[in-house]
Amino acid sequence: MAEVKTKEFVPASRRAVDNPQLQAALKRAGGGFDSARMEAIEELGEERWQELRERARRIKEHTLENLDYYLELLYNRVTANGGQVHFAADAQEANEIISELALSRGAKTVTKSKSMVSEEMGLNHSLEALGIRSVETDLGEYIIQLAGETPFHIVGPAIHKTKEDVSELFADKIDRPGLVEIEDLAETAREVLRNDLLQADMGISGANFLVAETGTLVIVTNEGNGRFCTSSPRIHVALTGMEKVVPSLEDLAVFLRLLPRAATGQRLTSYVSMVSGPRAPMEEDGPEEFHLVIVNNGRSRLLQDEKLRGALSCIRCGACLNICPVYRKVGGHAYGWVYPGPIGAVIDPVLVGLDKAKDLPFASSLCGACREVCPVKINLPHMLLTLRSRLMEGDEEGGSKATLMDSAMGRGYRTLMSSPAMMSLARKVGRVTQVAVARKGWIRKIPLPPFDRWTRARDMRAIPKESFRDIWDKELSKENAQPSQKGRKGEKP
Amino acid sequence: MASQSTDPKERIDNGGEHVSPRALLYVTCLVDQLYPEVGVSCVRLLRRLGVEVEFPKDQTCCGQAVFNSGFTNDARHLARRVLDTFGPLLEEKDDTYIVVPSGSCTSMMRVFYPSLFEDDPDLQHRATELGSRVYELSEFLVKVLGVTDVGGKHAGKVAYHPSCHLLRELEVEDEPVKLLRQVEGIDLVEVEQARTCCGFGGTFSVKYPHISEGMLADKLENLKASGASTLVGCDVSCLMHMEGALRRRGSSMSALHLAQVLESSEG
Amino acid sequence: MVQASLGKSSRALTEPYGPLDEDLDSIRERAAAAMERVQRERAELWERLGDTATKRGWNVCRAAGVEEGLEYVCNVASAAEAPRAVRSDQDVFDSMPVDAALGAQGVETAVMSQDGGSSRAELKNMAAMAGVGITGVDYAVAETGSVVVLPRAGVARLASLAPPVHIAIVRPHEVLATLDDLFLFRRLAYYEGDRNMGSYLNFITGPSRTADIEQKIVIGVHGPKEVHLVMLDEEKVG
Asked: Taking CA A38 as the corner, what is the angle to CA C210 and CA A313, rounded to the nearest 5 degrees?
């Protein structure tokens, strides 16, 4: 299982905010993806887009409500097609299944195309511990594998790296010094990885969709490494979360219009590969064996959770990351686990344990931009609120994770607001206290938490002499309630 | 319900019958305590448009601050208080609305109150009923009163900031702009990334000040580039956050609530 | 999940799901109607395919006949300075003798088929060594500017993948309007063909590309850098 660093959110996000190079990369990345997305949607037409989103949402909702049914259908159809289906309860089991396959087939080199599930599992480490070479072949994944990092973004794993960073990596790790242009870096990756893509014993891919009806795995890619990994090796192993199922082949028309547009603004990716089983006996190439590993790894907790189940509709387009002003400040690594951004702030706490990821549901201003761009209309801000409530109030799994300070603030606020009299009392205390710090109606610094965190960057309004209700009592309640002529002055007759 | 007449007086005197809608002003705790002038503008503006304004004095906070922090239980107490204070007043008379000069407090009442009472159908029903009568100020003016020209004056370049809850929980996007366009002397400017959050986010601003400040900096940069001399919004909370930073940076840009601009006859 | 892994019979769906409730006759009817529409609109779809394919990064050659098509293929191979080409074994090559045409300019074209006596390992090697890969297509989708290739005996997966240049030859009867058409027809084929989808289906929409470094689009990372769509219009629809 991938290392869980979700507890480090606060210091990690501070480091990110203070890192100018990272800030520059984030500015470039978010803006680029986002404007491409908007352009693609505009071309399609807003109305059509909304119609597709709603259809997608409904398909996913129906499928998740009946996931056991569709998983069984999928299982039966893949098996009938000659593939083998494995169910893995958690990351460890999934690693064991793949290790066992690799060892029993004598695989020395494994080529991988992009798979976020494999990131959950920490698959590369697990294979390498057995002496099996596991080579990431997506350019972004290859870069972060060389750098020994985890993906920074669901769609662009290495978008935080500049070409200079990559150039240095290629010089240090694969002895290809002196590369300057991005084209040359990409060409080098092509040359270096080609032999592995052709000669690997086993190819591992992810899955974007699984069609239950026909037992078909759908992979949406651009580089071509995914096609190699699923075509050239003797064995193809596909890894997927159990939520990727759609019922019918015809549903794909909806999702293939949504995913590329939402992810990169493409009308369609360069490649869509659909695998329905191992090669038939007469075929010229293709794997002899096809294995589908369906991974749970905490997803059934989401599935059983009525309020959060919708998060399993996610098609991993990354649009919520690109639009999220928080992600755009802190980047992908600060979240501390596989899925960053708003979708990560919702699913990571459930997948790794709420107590380990207490900070993530609060890593949002609840602006709702993520919901607005989500191609399957996941109500992310409301899910964040649900998680916040569970953290503070406790849930079936356990008691409140609120600190004494948290609870005192909640309770204190409620007491303060429990009546106008209490408000007025607090106001008086505030008025007396602020004398020390207020000047001309403004306060520059309040040396008292949590206000000190406010006045780090902002002045604070001092409490004025009269509250609204004072003015109401004194003047407003007595003013004429009729429309005054004065108010309409200046309007042309 | 909504009259399409652009002249409120026409609506009021329609058919010789004096139809005067009644607004229960939910002024919000922040306006009450820190920005009373916004409440004053609301009252005067609404009255000028022939609305009968009441200020139910038992009101405190809608509970959003604690709700967004996860304290659902505390929020429920405060929501109960709003239901008890405003519910009976709504039933007294038809054509009665709760009018709120805040998109986020309005969304708390309309969108989130019903979810607080999932275990109590009776209270949930009351919350839903109340929610259907709550209007954010600009929404009330345009949708209920059916007016866009309300007679305000303001000279100079104005940047409008659409606050997130207003925009995405209530889906009120055009109303404030329609109202502002009719203000005499106004020069409404475009802002880059206008729909992006300012970074306030309630307690988010003090829980993760480093992130909030980063978002705020981007927002201020875009506001500055717009050339506006005044920032206008429908939520005092977001304005307080931006205004506080503008002042800290010594900027000459001022911040006003929509009600203040619409009510102003000073220009 | 447990149910499924144990192979137990499942419960009913919470609500019927339209497409899965449909019987074969209904799929046939819809497919027939779609086919009729596609045939009726063929000239327009043919035109649109060329346009969208160009936008998606294909080099499009609208060839009025075989000779024009062959000339284009020869020009591409010569520009690629490729001594070797591979092609699949598809019926389009019966009427379009690329082997001879390329041979005449010194390009050796190997057919990626075990029928020629080569082993799979040898076929793979051929594809890896070739500078140009030439294939027919099973469908082309006007909406997306894509071609669809169904690997099978005679149609190797690597023919359109490993060489740096891919030439796809498409004819008017292969063009469909939308993704919906394609999946409807494939669905019909699945049920009519005794529940057999074929092992693989490949959509190709332009060249291989990446934007993984600084979001700059670079063409040709692992797959073909250059893709050509020869629109062979012997039926004169366009």
From this structure: 80
A417–B60 C-beta distance less than 8 A: yes
Residue C93 Cα, gap to closest chain A Cα (Å): 18
Alpha-carbon dihedral sign for residues A440, A445, A448, A453: positive
Structure tokens at A153: 């973004």
* Structure token digits, residue A324: 């999220």
Of C11, C13, C210, the CB nearest to A222: C210
Note the pTM of the prediction, 2 decimals: 0.95
CA–CA min distance A312, chain C (Å): 15
CB-based contact (8 Å) between A458 and chain B?
yes
- Which subunits have 3 or more CB–CB pairs within 8 Å of chain B? A
Rounded to an integer, what distance in angstroms lies between the CA atom of residue A160 and that of residue C221? 20
Structure tokens at A167: 């150039």
Placement of tokens 């999932």 in the chain = B118
CB atoms within 10 A of CB A173: 13
Rg (C-alpha) for chain C, rounded Å, is 20
Q: Which chains touch A (3 or more CB pairs under 8 A)?
A: B, C
C192 touches chain A (CB under 8 A): no
- Kindly determine whether residue A457 and residue B216, on different chains, have CB atoms separated by under 8 Å: yes
- What span, in angstroms and rounded, lies between the C-alpha atoms of A285 and A17? 49
Residues with Cβ within 8 Å of A61's Cβ and at least 6 positions away in sequence, in order, are: A310, A313
CB–CB contacts below 8 A, A to B: 227
CA angle (A71 as vertex; A70, A72 as ends), nearest 5 = 90
The mean of the pLDDT values for chain A is 94
Report the C-alpha gap between B107 and B237 in whole angstroms.
14
Q: What is the DSSP letter of C224?
A: -
Residue among A364, C76, A76 nearest B204 (CA): A364
CB distance B178 to B162 below 8 Å: no
Where would I find the H helices in chain B? Answer: 8-13, 29-33, 36-48, 64-68, 72-92, 103-107, 113-116, 121-132, 137-139, 164, 175-181, 204-207, 209-226, 236-248, 258-263
What is the C-alpha to C-alpha distance for residues C83 and C78, in angstroms, rounded to an integer? 9
Q: Tokens standing for C101?
A: 């045409």
- Contact status, residue A135 vs residue A102, Cβ threshold 8 Å: no
Q: Which of A14, A381, A476 sits opposite B210 (nearest CB)?
A: A14
C190-235 confidence digits (pLDDT tens): 999 889 889 999 999 999 999 999 999 999 999 999 999 999 998 8
**Do C and B count as touching (3 or more CB pairs closer than 8 A)?**
no
A 407-436 residues with CB < 8 A to B: 407, 409-411, 413-414, 417-420, 422-423, 427
**Inter-residue long-range contacts of A61-66, CB under 8 Å, 24+ positions, other chains counted:** A61/A310, A61/A313, A62/A247, A62/C13, A62/C14, A62/C15, A62/C17, A63/A245, A63/A246, A63/A247, A64/A243, A64/A303, A64/A309, A64/A310, A64/A312, A64/A313, A65/C14, A66/C13, A66/C14, A66/C17
Residue of chain C with shortest Cα separation from A271: C204
The answer to whether B210 contacts chain A (CB < 8 Å) is yes
Nearest to A368 among B32, B63, B164 (CB): B164
Summarised one tens digit per residue, pLDDT across range A303-342 is: 999 999 999 999 999 999 999 999 999 999 999 999 999 9
For A67, name the nearest residue in chain C, comparing CA atoms only: C1
Which residues of chain B from 109 to 138 reach within 8 Å of chain A, CB to CB? 112
Alpha carbon separation from A176 to A167, A173, A488, C118, C221 (Å, rounded)? 8, 8, 76, 36, 17
* Mean pLDDT of the C85-113 span: 97
Q: Which residues contact A424 (CB under 8 A, 6 or more apart)?
A: A467
- What is the token pair recorded at C163? 């060489």
Question: What's the pLDDT at A480?
Answer: 67
